[in-house]
Specification:
Oligomer: single chain
Number of helices: 12
CATH class: Alpha Beta
Structural class: alpha/beta
Strand order of the largest sheet: 1-8-7-6-5-4-3-2
Largest sheet: 8 strands, parallel
Bound molecules: flavin mononucleotide
Shape: globular
Radius of gyration: 19 Å
CATH superfamily: Aldolase class I
Length: 320
């Protein structure tokens, strides 16, 4: 970023300690995690569906605002899908609190984008293909989240090099890169590729504030990319899962059978909630997660790695 960068990406980055946006995670991201992330200088986020009701979402956002103040950056993820029967009510809460950033997932929705802009919020939409990014741009989103190969949750399948450069050919707005980013050096690499911010999800599954069982946190710390597999058997859409957790549920990860009736359903508080609760999802970048610590300690670590990587890169460039 240039000093005094007046672009939207520049303005967002100026408010952050490091150019990192936390990926919202179903079940795992709590209001406490959002508060810890944003206080530590990144954009904290959580899915609107994590609090068990719309009233609980209202309470959580009120608590986040109280802890962070009205100037802070945080995001709430709305699943704009017809099977999400809380969409309208949850949106009203988001509007009431003027949530600064709304992350839309699954389906781009022009009316929703307009409504969020009307109250002064920003819309970021996640995409796995350049084609999806163009659709999002057409309906006026402010930022694009490029979900590349190896991401936790519903993963993309493209190399980040291909995805970022194809989108950057025509998109000048804020671009966030998602997938396997877990260290400060990787955050700098995302910027070098052309992204403005790095999206970090899975490493926060091991953080103290995450609503993840002790066994899940331990599995994140002990696992690496070898332990992550992609399957559409649990949600009907390709997502990354931890092989050891599939085995712990009595299933053979190499012989999974996909239920032909499976489709994405957001009913009852989440996309096939049982799949996410019992079969644990994580991205390929978790080899870098060595400890289960409070989110602030992990962000401190990423920030100091980022500083070191910037210094190292400056030296390398000077030596050329
Ligand atoms: C357990 C888990 C649950 C997730 N749930 C959601 C979700 O509800 N909404 C969403 O937009 N993204 C969700 N994601 C995706 C993350 O926001 C983010 O894109 C992804 O974790 C980034 O890749 P990484 O895990 O390799 O850092 C989830 C990811 C994980 C690992």
């Amino acid at each position: 970023m240039m000093a005094g960068d007046s672009t939207l990406a520049g303005k967002l980055k100026a408010k952050l300690r490091i150019p990192v946006f936390a990926g919202p995670m179903f079940i795992a991201s709590t209001a406490d995690l959002v508060i810890a992330q944003s206080k530590a200088g990144i954009i904290g986020s959580m899915p609107a569906l994590n609090p068990r009701s719309t009233a609980a979402l209202d309470e959580d956002i009120a608590r986040i605002r109280e802890a962070l103040g009205d100037d802070a950056l945080y995001a709430v993820n709305l699943v704009a899908h017809r099977t999400n029967d809380r969409l309208e009510a949850d949106y009203e809460i988001i509007e009431k609190h003027k949530v600064p950033i709304v992350v839309l997932a699954l389906a781009a929705n022009a009316d929703l984008v307009k409504a969020i802009h009307n109250y002064g919020g920003l819309v970021f939409n996640d995409v796995v293909k350049n084609r999806h990014a163009r659709k999002c741009a057409e309906i006026g989103v402010d930022g694009i989240i490029a979900v590349a190969a190896g991401a936790g949750g519903h993963t993309g399948m493209l190399s980040p090099f291909a995805l970022v450069s194809e989108i950057r050919e025509w998109w000048q707005g804020p671009l966030v890169l998602s997938g396997c980013i877990a260290t400060g050096r990787q955050v700098l690499a995302a910027e070098a590729m052309g992204a403005d911010l790095a999206y970090i999800g899975s490493p926060f599954l091991a953080s103290a504030e995450a609503n993840t069982q002790a066994g899940f946190k331990k599995m994140i710390v002990e696992s690496s990319s070898d332990d992550v597999m992609i399957s559409d058997s649990f949600t009907g859409v390709k997502a990354s899962f931890l092989r050891p957790s599939i085995i712990e549920n009595g299933l053979d990860p190499d012989n999974l059978v996909r239920d032909p009736n499976l489709g994405i359903s957001i009913k009852d508080g989440g996309a096939n909630a049982k799949a996410w609760r019992d079969i644990w999802s994580a991205g390929q970048g978790i080899g870098a997660v060595k400890r289960s610590v409070p989110a602030a300690a992990y962000i401190d670590q990423v920030a100091s790695e980022y500083e070191m990587a910037c210094a190292d890169m400056t030296e390398r460039l000077a030596a050329r």
